[in-house]
Amino acid sequence: MVAKVYTGTTNGIEGILVCVEADISDGLPMFDMVGYLGAEVKEARERVRTALKNSGFRLPPSHITVNLSPADLRKQGNYFDLPIALSVLAAAGFVRMDELENKIFIGELGLDGKIRPVNGTLVLAECGQKAGIKKAVVPKENAKEAACLQETVVYGTKTLKEIVELLNNPDRLEENRQAVLYETSDKEDDSLDYDELYGQERMKRAAMVASAGFHNLLYIGQPGSGKSMSAKRIPTIMPEMTYKEQLEVTKIYSVAGLLDYKEGLIKKRPFRSPHHTISATALAGGGRFPKPGEISLAHHGVLFLDELAEFKRDTLEIMRQPLEDGKVTISRVNGSCSYPAEFMLVAAMNPCPCGYFPDRSRCRCSVGEIRRYRDRISRPMLDRIDICTEAFAVKFDDLSKAKKGADSSSMRARVTEAINRQRMRYKDEGILFNSQLKGSRLSKYCNLDQQKEELLRQAFESMGLSVRARDRILRVSRTIADLEGSEQIKEAHLAEAISYRSIDRKYWGDM
Does the record bear Chloroplast in its keywords (predicted)? Predict the structure, then answer.
């Protein structure tokens, strides 16, 4: 009799259901596995054979055939061991077949029969849920991760022998159920706060506007002026993620093998800050067995590129398409996969190699050196930055407590109010933030009267803006209006948005 067990495999952060079939028939003692298997899946045969022996299960000296279907899908990963072992045990009569139905099984086996944790458990459990299988048997360490799915019943187990005993005693299996562990919020991290940034209210304002609309932001200014300090505090003013956003971020970290087993659902927005020596593959994702890169690990959060001009130009250029599409697609000979990449780009850079331009009393860089330094960031890349603001040197008098300025708590309250307005406005549009407005939606929600249209036309012509830059000005002005609680974009809102485009023209205008 053929025994069937369901599991899954990953493609990006999406799961594909896989059926593991086992048959034991008369013939020479052999253990054959078929179904377009990767090297690590082929090795499962030896792990399963030894784990069964060391768990006390003696299989008859017969011909064992295991098939993983669909046959045209390449199976890769270490999570097939457990379903293969259970399908063989069921075919041999050690496990009740009716208890294998309507469950998805995930896990790697050690030679001693222990079930080891695997990456991508959440993705695979969700795959089963979408197929109508709402019970998941997973390694004990992965139980909290899989339990993030509120509609899925999760069972965490430690050994193969334990799982067989539980399956043969359904009442005990229910006692082993892993409850859904989902909390609405985490304790706030108060180690960083904007009240520590003195004398840079314009930088704080730019950070607040960027956070309220999920806009890309560039700080440019002298060393020590607080650019990095401001960028690292942006997560403290961003609103909490929705459950859907938390689930997407957790899936990415699960597939990448970066999820803390004790943490379960990731509730804080990611903040990624790669060094400027990072490779294009590490930034965008890829490799022989594709994994998400930094831009996907920053999904629904912040990707901070400090010393932007020190990054290789080719590395920066690879972000252009993900910044527009909100995803990155990795293609290989065996197929392709996509990872989401809806991140907020925050960058900081000096105006010249030494960092002190245009203060010629301190800057000794030649015109050619400055030009080559800024040339590392292309115009198309600059066009994808919504807000550019200067960071001026802080004066000594600005360091007094009387000039402390706004703190993260008050800034976050305003940002949250602005985002709530956007979510109400776009509840039927399938988007969350003003930065996602495109095409007809942009015209609909960023409608200008004749006077404001003339102001925008003058800026477009005098500053030599591209159509993309014009659209980004409209989106930023919509966000500024939301921060001020206005349903209509006013002239002051549009003028502020235009001012954020004038800074990059100041430094790149002569290029």
Answer: no
Reading phi first (left if > 0) and then psi (alpha if -120 to 50, else beta), residue 27 is in left
* pLDDT per position as a tens digit, 20-79: 999 999 888 899 999 999 898 999 999 999 999 999 999 888 999 999 999 988 898 899
Q: How far is CA 487 from the centre of its chain?
A: 31
Q: Report the half-sphere exposure of 79 (CA within 13 A, side-chain side).
A: 31
Residue 254 binned pLDDT confidence (cut-offs 50, 70, 90): very high
Cβ within 8 Å of residue 102, ≥6 positions away: 133, 134, 135
Tens digits of per-residue pLDDT, 362-386?
Answer: 898 999 999 999 989 998 999 999 9
Strand partners, 138: 156
| Concatenated DSSP letters of 344-361 | EEEEEE-SSSSS-TT-TT
What count of other Cβ atoms lies within 10 Å of the Cβ of residue 171? 7
User: Please, are residues 274 and 241 in contact by the beta-carbon 8 Å criterion?
Assistant: no
Q: Is 63 helix (H, G, I), strand (E, B) or coil?
A: strand
d(CA 363, CA 100): 72
pLDDT of 182 higher than 50: no
The domain ranges of the chain are 3-178, 194-508
Rounded-to-integer distance, Cα 384 and Cα 377, Å: 11
For residues 465 and 282, give the distance between their C-alpha atoms in angstroms, rounded to a whole number. 32
Q: What is the CATH number of domain 3-178?
A: 3.30.230.10
Fold for the domain defined by 194-508? Rossmann fold (3.40.50)
pLDDT category, 186, cuts 50, 70, 90?
Answer: very low
